[in-house]
């Protein structure tokens, strides 16, 4: 393979030059490819869809980890569903105030191969004593565990293949049931311009389960087609409207160095363009509490 063409969309996509093919195989769950590209570094592809690259992964992982944890302000128990490359775990574990992190990943081969070929993603986070990694289906785990969490992060693939269950009403309901009061769920919901139906479906399902829900956004170069939206769901409406002052205070106290996240970006990310609002069935951004 000298070039990789992403197959997510029928009539539009992105092409990478494969400068070095590092690994290609079928795991029990999905087709996995890791290659090197001069512009993006190492690239992980699952079932023909780019999951993460060394160059731009920080945007996605910082926004899915720091926004909920800093908005919450007192997160001790964090659950990561999916995220086998380990970068979400790396960002979550930067919060010294988090006491326990459980990661549930369905595909153990993704974990092993990413530790081997994408070591900068996890950057040692799997060795953190606060971390427990379970190989399980995320929905099954949530429906059977007795644990509760302050923050749940769904770091999934698209709703095709093994990731599909992580976009179901049952999954959102199971997350809701396992959140402590004041807890928050964040989810990966694809590129709004290219995947409006997926987004609209997620909005309806989150709305059916949580008192307060919205989406927030970031542009990630290798999730092509415009801004990606992240789901935000909680029963505590105040979390979404947290002011700059407390965020600044928490962010500084955390001592975390970021490359994308800052409190202004955090707040601004919840301001959605009108076509996205229309897709999720809202009239306005509800940016004032
Ligand atoms: N999971 C999100 C991949 C989304 C790709 N989809 C897309 N472009 N619509 C990434 C896992 C990183 N830890």
Gist?
The chain folds into two domains: 51 residues, Spermidine synthase, tetramerisation domain (Spermidine Synthase, Chain: A, domain 2, Roll); 223 residues, Rossmann fold (3-Layer(aba) Sandwich), CATH 3.40.50. It is built from ten helices and 13 strands.
Large-scale geometry: globular
Major beta sheet, specifics?
7 strands, mixed
CATH fold title of the largest domain: Rossmann fold
Name of the CATH homologous superfamily of the largest domain = Vaccinia Virus protein VP39
Strand order of the largest sheet: 9-8-7-10-11-13-12
The CATH architecture of the largest domain comes to 3-Layer(aba) Sandwich
Calculate the mean pLDDT score and round it.
97
Please tell me the total number of domains. 2
What oligomeric state best describes the polypeptide chains here? single chain
> How much β-strand is present in the residues?
25-35%
Helix content: 25-40%
Can you write the helix and strand succession as a string? EEEEEEHEHEHHEHEHEHEEHHH
Radius of gyration: 18 Å
Unreliably modeled segments: none
Query: Using DSSP, what is the number of strands?
Result: 13
Label the structural class: alpha/beta
What would you note in describing this structure?
The chain is of the alpha/beta class. It folds into two domains: 2-52, Spermidine synthase, tetramerisation domain (Spermidine Synthase, Chain: A, domain 2), CATH 2.30.140.10; 57-279, Rossmann fold. The chain has ten helices and 13 strands. A hairpin with a 3-residue loop joins strand 4 and strand 5. It is globular.
């Amino acid at each position: 393979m000298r070039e990789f063409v992403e197959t997510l969309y029928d009539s539009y996509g992105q092409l990478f030059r494969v400068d070095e093919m590092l690994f290609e195989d079928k795991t029990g769950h999905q087709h996995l490819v890791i290659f090197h590209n001069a512009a993006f570094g190492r690239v992980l592809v699952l079932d023909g869809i780019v999951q993460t690259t060394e160059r731009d992964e920080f945007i996605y992982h910082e926004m899915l980890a720091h926004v909920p944890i800093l908005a919450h302000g007192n997160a001790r128990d964090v659950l990561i569903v999916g995220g086998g490359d380990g970068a979400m775990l790396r960002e979550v574990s930067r919060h010294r105030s988090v006491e326990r992190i459980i990661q549930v990943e369905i595909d153990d081969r993704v974990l092993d191969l990413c530790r081997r070929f994408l070591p900068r993603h996890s950057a040692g986070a799997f060795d953190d004593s606060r971390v427990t990694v379970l190989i399980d289906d995320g929905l099954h785990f949530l429906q059977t565990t007795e644990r509760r969490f302050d923050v749940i992060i769904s770091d999934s693939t698209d709703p095709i293949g093994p990731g599909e269950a992580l976009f179901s009403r049952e999954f959102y309901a199971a997350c809701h049931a396992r959140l402590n009061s004041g807890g928050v769920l964040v989810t990966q919901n694809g590129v709004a311009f290219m995947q409006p139906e997926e987004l609209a479906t997620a909005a309806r399902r989150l709305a059916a389960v949580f008192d307060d829900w919205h989406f927030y956004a970031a542009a990630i170069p290798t999730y092509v087609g415009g801004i990606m939206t992240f789901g935000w769901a909680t029963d505590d409406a105040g979390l979404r409207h947290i002011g700059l002052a407390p965020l600044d205070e928490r962010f500084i106290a955390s001592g975390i160095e970021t490359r994308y996240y800052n409190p202004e970006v955090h707040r601004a990310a919840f301001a959605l363009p009108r076509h996205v609002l229309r897709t999720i069935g809202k009239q306005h951004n509800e940016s004032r509490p």
